[in-house]
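Progress narrative, Year 2. Work on DUF4244 domain-containing protein from Arthrobacter glacialis advanced from sequence curation to structure prediction during this period.
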Amino acid sequence: MAAVGFAGLLVVILKSDEVRGFLLNIIRAALSF
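Result:
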């Protein structure tokens, strides 16, 4: 389930630079948390 969702996110990220930057900021915040 998680792997499928992650793969879906990768597709969205590859299609949108803005979304990629937005998600990268969220990931960095989550990792630093």
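The CA atoms of residues 24 and 30 lie 10 Å apart. The chain has one domain: 1-32.
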